[in-house]
What we know:
Elements: H1 14-22, H2 30-41, E1 46-51, H3 57-62, E2 67-70, E3 83-90, E4 102-116, E5 119-127, E6 139-145, H4 148-163, E7 169-173, E8 176-180, H5 181-188, H6 199-214, H7 216-221, E9 227-233, H8 240-253, E10 267-270, H9 278-293, E11 296-300, H10 303-306, H11 312-320, E12 328-334, H12 342-345, E13 353-356, H13 362-375, H14 387-395, H15 401-417, H16 423-434, H17 445-453, H18 457-462, H19 464-489, H20 498-501, H21 505-513
Parallel strand pairs: 7-10, 9-12, 9-13, 10-11, 11-12
Antiparallel strand pairs: 1-6, 2-4, 3-4, 4-5, 5-6, 7-8
The structure holds adenosine-5'-diphosphate and magnesium ion.
Amino acid sequence: MTGNSFQVHSSEDxxxxxxxxxxxxxxxxxxxxxxxxxRKQYPHLELVVVPQNFTNLLAYASAGYAKATPLExxxxxxxxxxxxxxxxxxxxxxxxxSRPGVFVEQIIFGKFMYKWKDQEVILYIAxxxxxxxxxxxxxxxxxxxxxxxxxxxxxxxxxxxxxxxxNEVWVFDQGYWQKSAELYNSxxxxxxxxxxxxxDMKKALISDVENFFDGQKTYTDLKVPWxxxxxxxxxxxxxxxxxIKAMMHMLYKRGAEKDDDxxxxxxxxxxxxxxxxxxxxxxxQIFSKAxxxxxxxxxxxxxxxxxxxxxxxxxxNEVDGLTSNDxxxxxxxxxxxxRLDPGIAKRPSRFDRKYFFSNPDFDQRVQYAQFxxxxxxxNKNIDFPDVxxxxxxxxxxxxxxxxxxxxxxxxxxxxAVRGGKNPDTFALDAQRFAGPEDPMTNVDKQARRDxxxxxxxxxxxxxxxxxxxxxxxxxxxxxxxxxxxxxxxxPIRPRAGVGSLNRYRDExxxxxxxxxxxxSGTRF
Length: 524
Ligand SMILES: Nc1ncnc2c1ncn2[C@@H]1O[C@H](COP(=O)(O)OP(=O)(O)O)[C@@H](O)[C@H]1O
Ligand SMILES: [Mg+2]
């Protein structure tokens, strides 16, 4: 140890003595200490030191490309064994998750025999977090080899692999790009079939994107830069986000099959520009990643809040600047096209194509009710005759899809809370328990359904789903009116997003489908 050692005279507690002693050196550099020790121990081997952030050799091995065998047992010293790990348990991130949490093990110090192809090296891994703050949290890998050249090949392969996505989406948040498996999984569940849109518009949305990614040659022949921007706008809750997700899913499937030689198109998803380096720094990070990943689909959710007045010029610099943005298709969504600077929305090669996501018309509301009818078709407790679809569409004029969804969710919850029984079932139950009928008699379901299908006002008024739906729609209408009133009083106040309206969605998901769990993997 160099520097002034702190003299501790008390020898009462050996551990605290060591701790204070260790923390009082003038300067600590674990890397240098280790390099010195390793060179002494293996004077005949070459040493290559590789930071772990971009080249994670253990992750590469656990993906099946190499084999890392721990050498924990090679030294039988109870104190100075060659392994130090941290173990933690991460509980499920939602209380409703049915799956258990996971154990995560992080290697602080370890020694491995590392094999790939026909090569073999000794690998030390050491977390050299020095100083009092957690930054820099640096883990180095010390590779001992007889063939440095082969190690370079390994580094190339492992780093490339590390940069690629493996069932993840790149998400920009808090100032850096991170891989999100959660968003990837939710995208896997999105598809165009569950997005109700005008058919022509849906086709145009899709072909716009397909043509762009298929069209590199066309753009080059026309001598125009191969880049585009599209805006999805309209009142909240009408499918901008779910369309983006369906598009992401579609793009991931490109090139996935063997005979499909198109390039897959990853999505880069920007949540916010907020970061410790400020928005200018964020924009630089965002676009440099997009150029690296191109061809790619670059998503700015709620574009108006991302490109505020003070960052507009930085944004345009990146979009129009001298650096090539070839292969980047940007999509921005906004509930407030009017708040977007015309410079962004109107110029070619920026966001020159716009799609309006309106509130659903009558036919679309019928379609949406049919979508729920399909979802509920195997639920024995709910009678949902065809005629109800039009009835529901009639009373939900001016509703967005998200409001309609809310009407369904609230209705079903109310019914579920009450025991999930319609008035008929109640009547039958009552009869059973009250009296003469044989409790084992089968209820003739078909006959009951046929009865329900008749467009008979009396029958409908007994239908629990319809009765409850009318109540919920009324509540939502009152809520909407109240909001409109407030919007008139305070025109610049941001309107409540659909987020708050979706509060029951997860609960309902659990009721209907048993919920879905997310899980995390092992960190190295
Ligand atoms: N066009 C649509 N077709 C089917 N469901 C829709 C549609 N638009 C919205 N929804 C429902 O409303 C919810 C919110 O929609 P979203 O796409 O997030 O709206 P926004 O336009 O505000 O991005 C969705 O999760 C979906 O359940
Ligand atoms: Mg949205």
